[in-house]
Amino acid sequence: MMRIKKAVITAAARGERLYPVADTVQKAMLPVIDTDGLHKPVIQIIAEEAFSSGIEELCVVCAPGDGERYLKAFASLRDNLFHSFKGVDWAKKEAEKIDHLISRIQFAEQKEPLGYGHAVYCAREFVNNEPFLLLLGDYLYVSNLSQKSCVAQLIELASQENCSVSAVNPTIEHQIGRYGTLTGKQAPNQSGVYQIEQIIEKPSLSVAELELQTPGLRAGYYLCFFGMHVFTPAVFDILQKYIDQDGSNILLTPALQELAETETYLALEVKGNRYDLSRKHGLLRAQIALGLAGEAHGEILSTMVELLAEANSRTV
After folding, report:
1. Is residue 99 part of a domain?
2. Is the dihedral of CA 57, 162, 178, 276 positive or negative?
3. Pfam families per the record (predicted)?
C-alpha cells in the first residue's frame, strides 16, 4: 500500500484578483474562521486538513522572499496567542498547532512565474522520489462527510490503488472554462472512480461536447479538477521534459495527459465542495460554507436570514 507522507502547497502567485489586499498580505495568509470557530490564515486551514489525513511534511512553493515572511507571520501569531491569552486553553492548543506547522513546513521558491507545472516542479527536491499530495494555496474545501475530509477521501483511494489520483467534481457546463476537465471510463465496482483517458485545460463547451463527455454523469455536467491531487514522482520526469523543451510557460495539464498514457491514473468524485478564494466573492462563499459546516451553523443561518430579510425590505 502506497503511503503518502508529503504535501506540496502551491502559493507563488501574487493574487492580482484579490487586489488591493494581496499587495500587502500573501493571499494564503488571509484570515478565515474555521469550522472550529477560530480565526486562522487560509494556509493553516489547508495544512491542518493535510496533517489530519496523515501528512507529515509540507512544502510551500512560494515567490522569492515569501518563505521568511510566512515564518515570521506564524511566529507572530503563536507569540500573540501565548501573550494575549495567557493560560486560556483554546489559545494554548492553537499555539501548539502553529508550532507543529512551523516544525513541519519547508519552502521552495519559484524564482520566475513560468507556469503552474513549473511551480509544481520546484518541489521536486522536497518530494525526493516519493508519492505526494498536491494542494492549491487559494482553495478551501468542505467535505460532505462528517468523519472524512476531502483530502482523506483522496489519500485513501490513492493508497489502496497505489497510483496517482486527482479529485474531481461534476461541474455544470457553463463553468468548465475555469477548470481542467477530463473524461474516462468508470472503474468496475467503484462508484465515482474513473480511469482517466483525456484531459483538456479550460476547454470551450464545443470541444467538451465533442471530446469530454463522461457516461453516467447528468446531462450538461463534466468532470473538472477539484484542486487536489496525489501524484507518483513520475510526474516530475514528465515535467522535466517539458521544461527542457520550452521553459517559458510550463502547464501541468499536458504533463498529466502524458501521465494518464503511461501509468494508472484515476479520478475520484470527492464528496465535498471547493471554494476558489481568488474568484469574485470567493472568500465570502468559503467563509459561509465553513460556518455552515462548523460549530456556528445556527448562528450563520440566522445571520443569513436576517440579511436576506433586510435586503428584501429595501427592495419593496
Report:
1. yes
2. negative
3. NTP_transferase
Q: Going residue by residue through the chain (316 aa), what tens digit of pLDDT does each one get? A: 899 999 999 998 765 545 555 555 678 899 999 999 999 999 999 999 999 999 999 999 999 999 999 999 999 999 999 888 887 999 999 999 999 999 999 999 999 999 999 999 999 999 999 999 999 999 999 999 988 999 999 999 999 999 999 999 999 999 999 999 999 999 998 999 999 999 999 999 999 999 999 998 999 999 999 999 999 999 999 999 999 998 789 999 999 999 999 999 999 999 999 999 988 899 999 999 999 998 888 888 888 888 888 888 876 5
* Neighbour-count burial for 256-272, b at 16+ CB within 10 Å, e otherwise: bbbbbeeeebbbbbbeb
State how many domains the chain has: 1
Dihedral-angle region of residue 183 (phi above 0 means left; psi in -120 to 50 means alpha; beta otherwise) = beta
Collapsing DSSP to helix, strand or coil, 65 comes out as coil
CATH at residue 88: 3.90.550.10
**What is the length of the chain?**
316
Residue 240 within any structural domain of the chain = yes
Task: For residue 1, tell me if it sits in a domain.
Answer: no
SS3 letters across 174-241: HHHHHCEEEEEEECCCCCCEEEEEEEEECCCHHHHHHHCCCCCCCCCEEEEEEEEEEECCHHHHHHHH
**In the chain, what is the greatest distance between 2 CA atoms, to the nearest angstrom?**
63
- Domain for residue 169, yes or no? yes
What pTM was estimated for this model as a whole? Answer: 0.93
